[in-house]
Amino acid sequence: MSRRTNEKLNVEWGKIVIAALFEVGWVIGLKHASQWWEWMVTVIAIAVSFYLLIQAGKRLPVGTAYAVFVGLGTAGTVSAEFLLFGEPLEIIKVLLIGLLLAGVIGLKLVTNEDYSQQEKGVE
């Protein structure tokens, strides 16, 4: 994979990570918002999250991008609920989130390999 292509993909994956962080914010906002301004922040987080996902989906395979977005958002939301709001965290949750993140990392690695092969003309 050329350096330029790799840099473009890294930017798109960065958008997915940032979108997932905003997803964590809006999911928590849906549960905990009670003031009008908290709802506004939640709506803005939804808009930013989906905007970044849509932009990244223009260059990345949409299914993979969405799976990574949801996986990171899920792991982040469970972690934030535990750290910020004292939600119980059972060992099975930790193991399943680890499995989810392993799948997300695997999808990203396979996607980069697919782009490398496409660049060389191999389908």
TrEMBL record:
Record keywords, A-Z: Cell membrane, Membrane, Transmembrane, Transmembrane helix, Transport
Protein location: Cell membrane
Membrane protein topology class: Multi-pass membrane protein
GO MF annotation terms: transmembrane transporter activity
Coiled coil: none
Name used for this protein in its record: Multidrug resistance protein SMR
Gene Ontology cellular component list: plasma membrane
PANTHER family, per database record: GUANIDINIUM EFFLUX SYSTEM SUBUNIT GDNC-RELATED, SMR FAMILY PROTON-DEPENDENT DRUG EFFLUX TRANSPORTER SUGE
InterPro entries: EmrE-like, Small_drug/metabolite_transptr, Small_multidrug_res
